[in-house]
Amino acid sequence: MDRPVVQVSKAGGERADAARNRAHLLDTARALMAEHGATKVTMDGLAASSGLGKGTVFRRFGSRAGIFRALLEDEETKLQQAVLSGPPPLGPGAAPLERLIAYGAARVDFLFDNYEIARAALDGGQSAPMGAQTPLSRIHIRMLLDLIKPPVSDRGVLATQLTAALDGPALLLLHVDDFADAKNDQVRAKFVQGWSDLVGLVCRHTSTGHG
Amino acid sequence: MDRPVVQVSKAGGERADAARNRAHLLDTARALMAEHGATKVTMDGLAASSGLGKGTVFRRFGSRAGIFRALLEDEETKLQQAVLSGPPPLGPGAAPLERLIAYGAARVDFLFDNYEIARAALDGGQSAPMGAQTPLSRIHIRMLLDLIKPPVSDRGVLATQLTAALDGPALLLLHVDDFADAKNDQVRAKFVQGWSDLVGLVCRHTSTGHG
DNA sequence: ACCGTAAACGGACTTTACCCCGCTAATATT
DNA sequence: AATATTAGCGGGGTAAAGTCCGTTTACGGT
């Protein structure tokens, strides 16, 4: 039993063959991406490579962006597990602010590891382009803020703003070459530290020094 | 003399006919959007409606998203003027924190007023999907943070995170129906207040903090 | 005014996302 | 086990994005 605690996909009432095809398509998509990059993953190409029909691809994922959203949710499951039942400070057991800081670090790593997928996932969306309507990040941050109780008029709004502060840089502000191998680690580290500074200030935690 | 202080487009070395066509295309695009909504603005349609060739449309704007980026930059010029030379607290003259709070309010209004354009603008971008590589928001926030000197290890990172906290909700987290006429004003107000709370906390100097 | 050049124009062409609907096969019912 | 039901499958069709290249036109030099 390793089904995620929060149902991320509509995998629930799916027929057996449909589920099998979904998994196979995701694998094929990952392979195509690894080989040629995200921009070269086309619907026809994916259908052909997987040996399935184009209609099937669209039924499963709705749109091109939907494939990348599914891919992202799939990767996100690992992070989700670590957050919900892994060891502290990311998982339960640590103080809320520690968990918040740890979550930021984990999320930055996640986004940098998967930035190509993440950016491809926000193409074209009519409605909310981000993963789910209330992403994992926002829910978790909200929960921790409810424990920390920072002095703001609306904790839900703060959760949304912090989610954006965490995801926004990688998703819409950074250049592609900020993800280039050379700069990658330094940029990551800067944003991890920055997140720590930011939530430290918001949660009135000033004892940790910085250089 | 109403040329923007910061050159937002490559309007500089453009031939006269090119500049004329650019302006005409933007007007036509605005008209099409007002009539049928952003999703119905097609490159063929825009070319036909403007009486120009499709090649021209692509040469001018590079891609579909490019049209919306140009439209957004055009609108943003007004905000830019108010920030650079308008009356305080948005313009120069007020205390930095006041200006920062006022900027947030103005930016939220701008994004809510132009959210359809703004979302259409972030389609498909290979590189940084947002307007310019270093958007107005980030530059201005960075400048104000340099005056306020909040106790963080990297002010550039904080500027990026606050820019994301300001733009992210409207661009990637809110549902479309949060922009529906009924909820619109309340949601705006919540985010304006939230921004004020957020930067208030970030910029509050503590006794132990450094200058 | 004329001319040469470089930029801009236009629209046919290619590629690709997305739709449709007749066909197939997995599950529910008896 | 046979049948009815319903979801899933497949691939051809449409429309819209993006490319190319021959033609036209602005503009600086003479």
From TrEMBL, chains A, B:
Q: Which residues bind DNA?
A: 42-61
Q: Which Gene3D superfamilies match?
A: Tetracycline Repressor, domain 2 (1.10.357.10)
Print the keywords alphabetically.
Answer: DNA-binding
Q: Which residues cross the membrane?
A: none
Per UniProt, residues of the HTH tetR-type domain are 19-79
One function term, GO molecular function aspect: DNA-binding transcription factor activity
The UniProt entry, under SUPFAM superfamilies, shows: Homeodomain-like
Q: Which domain of life is it from?
A: Bacteria
Q: One Pfam annotation, family name? A: TetR_N
> What is the protein name for this chain?
Transcriptional regulator, TetR family
Organism equals: Actinacidiphila guanduensis
